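Researcher: Going back to the complex we discussed earlier. I've cleaned up the inputs and rechecked each line, so this should be the final set. Can you rerun the prediction on the complete assembly and write out the structure?
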Amino acid sequence: ETGVTQSPTHLIKTRGQQVTLRCSSQSGHNTVSWYQQALGQGPQFIFQYYREEENGRGNFPPRFSGLQFPNYSSELNVNALELDDSALYLCASSPDYSGGWQFFGPGTRLTVL
Amino acid sequence: AQTVTQSQPEMSVQEAETVTLSCTYDTSESNYYLFWYKQPPSRQMILVIRQEAYKQQNATENRFSVNFQKAAKSFSLKISDSQLGDTAMYFCAFMIIQGAQKLVFGQGTRLTINP
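Model: Rerun complete. Updated structure for the full complex:
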């Protein structure tokens, strides 16, 4: 069974650019959540997708958007990058009736210059 | 709003010792889960232990156990017989059962196990 995977591992962008991060959920998991983890901080919830619909959103501006595909993989898109967007972006997947269990991927390290 | 507070930014113990990490949280909800996650230098967040708020019995997973005090909104993690591989950032997290399964994390405690 393959766990949660994320791509790319790391990338560097400049301010004002756009970026797309990808996440493949664990087999059988239909819920994907995205978190932003700034250096030295705990992760912050960005949003969650359940069966291709947004199922909850944290306190992030609309330039953070996402998608979930029929195979339950997901994308996080960030437009008009700002320096403060530099962070580790974590994706987590979970199945129905998981009792709160979320399984995290290794993350994508984004650096905005 | 729910908040999670970890008051110990860093801790350090010798291998084989027992260590306790503290966590407090604030919520007006009655049904929720509490978690401890471990994040080693590899960055991947690993679930250590989970507690359901409606269960009075403290959760245990091998060398890891929790002390859950619901009235005090306290949720500490005890690691027994600590090992070098336990060196990591430890995050306490909270999740309301209703609605989106959103984890609210604390700031983390950096735990170092010394040989």
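Model: Worth noting: The longest strand of chain B covers residues 88-96.
Researcher: Good, that matches what I expected from the previous run.
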